[in-house]
Hints:
This is Probable butyrate kinase. It catalyses: butanoate + ATP = butanoyl phosphate + ADP. This protein has 13 helices and eleven strands. It is an alpha/beta fold.
Amino acid sequence: MRILTINPGATSTKIGYVEEEEIVYQETIAHSVEKLQVFDHVQDQLELRLQAVLDQVHEWGLNLKLLDGIGARGGLLPPVQSGAYEINQAMLDYLMYRPRVEHASNLGALLAEKIRAVAGKKTRAFVYDPVTVDEFPPVARISGLKGMERESIGHALNMRAVAREVAENQQRTYEDVTYIVAHLGGGNSISLHHQGRMVDLISDDEGPFSTERTGELPVKQVIAWCYDHSQKEMMTHYRKQGGVLSYLGTNDAREVEKRIAIGDEEASLVYEAMAYQISKGIGSLAPIVAGKVEGIIMTGGLAYSDVLMAAVEKQVAFIAPVYRVPGERELMALAKGVARVLRGEELSHQLTC
């Protein structure tokens, strides 16, 4: 089976070509900030990114007409179930003209449909496990303030992929396990996976701070800050200038660990605090299943850090065995999801919005 995968990020587009569930080619196409800054909206970047993807595919020597499927990272769609969604006009219109939030991932389906048109009618295009996968039960939606619901927005694609991988390594199925998965990097999110569903999630504004995001903050102090800062400034503090960066002036965990190694006490305290908050987040999800957790999985870029992972494992190993699956599996997760649909092992959904 021949599948092209597409994962747009803020300043890059990752693409991969997979045959029979083996990655043959993959590339991260960088887009200069200068070129992106001329566009008023993320959607306006479509043609620029499309041409970059087509150029890379041409360099690989691929014949798009031989593709069986295309898998793209899903953007900020309305809340959806997990799994595959075949790209249709309703989805394209939503992402192009009325997205709930402007985000680079919204370009995934738009790029996939453009490439599918070149490939021909026999090629099918899907998004898989969008960032808005929402399988919360009603009790999990209660926030504490009527009219403000908790939402499930996070790294669903990679978190579900690594949960499947760990389950398969244990000769289990994803539908038969209960795991807590922590995706740790520029933004942190922690999710509970129970019997094939992601039933709760601590998003990057509810839980531990990351290398550049604040995580959960003291609400009374946030209210006071809002009187002195615009909404744009507050969002910048929360998403781009918070976390480790706000304390230490860097969002590079490797730099922080170098400082710790030479005795920087502030760096040591901040890193310890990040591990402390990650551990609190993991621990807060265990009671939902009465502590019957079968594994804790660490993934994302920060899972490469032996220092951070050792600190977290020390605090949470009493709950369940800890597994490290560092980095991200998103391109392969897209390919495997599309392949399951094309083989008839999994049904795809249709978005109506």
